[in-house]
Specification:
By secondary structure, this protein is an alpha/beta fold. Helices cover about 40% and strands about 20% of the residues. The strands form 3 sheets. Strands 3-2-1-4-7-13 form a 6-stranded mixed beta sheet. Strands 10-9-8-11-12 form a 5-stranded mixed beta sheet, sandwiched between helices. Strands 5-6 form a two-stranded antiparallel sheet. Helix 6 packs antiparallel against helix 11, helix 8 crosses helix 11 and helix 11 crosses helix 12.
Length: about 375
């Protein structure tokens, strides 16, 4: 391996609470990044339950949060071990781990009292892996007056250069857009729920972790009245910079909109349309000149959602829009965020700012994350 390149591991467990993606990245001196290998594993039912219950307040939650942070660190460490074994590597071969942790509170709109919290015990992760850990990437941006999210647009700008007007749509639990114009400033923002509400709804009614290929949604009929109620939420009309999460969109929010007059599969169909509509409406509003839309995240594997994006794009946009998953540019859609957090760890080690103030609203560029040496 060229000594000017280093190996990093990015660890991502997203808002959908589905599991862990561990991505081995080779990163060059100017931040050029490629995926070398990956290992993905689902959460145990116990850890998923513990993390889900922490999304709302409850008894003894400080103790439960610390225990969940420890359990997540142990699960992360196991994923790292599996990845190293798979690639016949030792801890000393890895410069650092970039670990996102699990967001359980995100409150960036409280002025001087704003905060964001991703549960994790990074010291335990460093101890278990024998590798430096960079974690808590979002807090520095929030301290500088930003939303602390989304953080991946800086990586997208590095990873997806183009001579055309390109947008990256990441559909994880939350959906976010990165706008990469062929000239001008890179921008980006959360545009609304991605898979999160669909996952929660099918888990409640079918016992499944997610709606594979949107098959259940396709059995339902969209309720235009329900969709209109959802779209009336103030978040969707709020101008960027903006970010969101389970604090804003959750089952109680959904129940308030539904009432008692909808079949479960009709609600699922409507949620599918909510994800597609809010993403494309935001694209029309803030980047109507976009020529190519690259989709990544778990939503890129939902065939019904991908097809709906193409149909709605023809309805909403005045010019043709090419829509493809990040497979088309050689990156597994499921691994983009893990790769991004490997890159964020590299940026921290290199003492390079990694937030984009135009995206997050921070006062200026900041070096993100805190280091826990092995």
């Amino acid at each position: 391996m060229n000594k000017s390149h280093s190996l990093y591991i990015g660890l991502m467990s997203g808002t959908s609470l589905d599991g862990i993606d561990a991505v081995l990245a080779k990163i060059g001196p100017d931040g050029e990044t490629s995926t070398q290998a990956a290992f993905s594993t689902p959460f145990s039912s116990e850890l998923r339950k513990a993390l889900f219950e922490l999304q709302t307040t409850g008894p003894n939650e400080l103790h439960r949060e610390k225990q969940a942070g420890n359990a997540l660190a142990i699960a992360y460490a196991d994923a790292v071990s599996q990845l190293l074994q798979k690639e016949n590597l030792k801890p000393d071969d890895i410069t650092a781990i970039g670990a996102h942790g699990q967001t359980i509170r995100h409150q960036p709109d409280l002025g001087d009292m704003a905060y964001t919290h991703q549960t994790l015990n990074p010291a335990l992760l460093a101890e278990r892996t024998g590798i430096d850990v960079i974690a808590d990437f979002r807090s520095r941006d929030v301290a500088a007056g930003g939303n602390g999210a989304p953080l991946v647009p800086a990586f997208h700008a590095q990873q997806f250069p183009s001579s055309e007007n390109v947008a990256i749509l990441n559909i994880g639990g939350i959906a976010n857009l990165t706008l990469l114009p062929k000239s001008g400033e890179v921008t980006g923002f959360d545009c609304g729920p991605g898979n999160m509400l669909m996952d929660a709804w099918i888990a409640k009614h079918q016992g499944d972790a997610f709606d594979e290929n949107g098959n259940w949604a396709l059995q339902g009929k969209v309720s235009e009245a329900l969709l209109a109620k959802m779209l009336a939420d103030p978040f969707f009309s709020k101008a960027p910079p903006k970010s969101t999460g389970r604090d804003d969109f959750h089952l109680n929010w959904l129940h308030e909109k539904i009432g008692t007059h909808h079949r479960p599969e009709d609600v699922q169909a409507t949620l599918l349309h909510l994800t597609a509509h809010t993403a494309l409406e935001a694209l029309v509003r803030y980047a109507p000149q976009t020529q190519n839309l690259i989709v990544c995240g778990g939503g890129a594997r939902n065939n019904a959602l991908m097809n709906l994006l193409k149909v709605k794009a023809q309805q909403l946009l005045k010019q043709p829009l090419e829509i493809a998953t990040s497979d088309a540019v050689g990156i597994d859609p499921q691994l983009v965020e893990g790769l991004a957090f490997a890159w964020l760890a590299w940026a921290h080690k290199e003492k390079r700012p990694a937030n984009l103030p135009a995206v997050t609203g921070a006062k200026g560029p900041r070096i993100l994350g805190a280091c826990y040496p092995a």
